[in-house]
Amino acid sequence: MKILALSGSARRLSTNTALLRALEEIAPPDIALTTCADLGGLPVFSPDLEDLPLHDSVVRFKQCIEASDGILISSPEYARGIPGGLKNAMDWLVSGVLGVAKPIALVHASHRDDDMLASLRLVLSTISSRFNEELFLRFPFMKMEPEAIASAVRQPVNRAPAEAFLQEFARYCGRPQGDRA
Asked: Can you give the pTM of this predicted structure?
């Protein structure tokens, strides 16, 4: 199972990116989790650009989406909204078919940011018919350093729910479209 993990943060020491990388570390052997934390390199979306040869970064991004069996997204809240880089990446998926039936779930590294999560859920439910709002993993890691986050995820109290979440998401990715059971 190939899962693409998208970080909505452009920060070098992002807690959300650190959480996704920690999940990579503990992922079961049958789940290949790969984190993409460079969404800021995508050009600003415009439908006019789709008629031209796509920028290399857009081609690579779309190839990563296409090659994945599912997508996990973890993002901070910027000014009570979705960070621009993540929203721009989602915009690149709106007019095509890549995201339409792609299983998507959220991971979050903070005990707050519910405004952004509500906005992100709305966008994702528009992009994908397989966005699963019920599958959600959240840890209160805000303001922690990446090494501390990795250590915290390895602790049994956090590792068990994280592994269970990854396994449940992998099962969801393998189900036929329309089957949420």
From this structure: 0.94
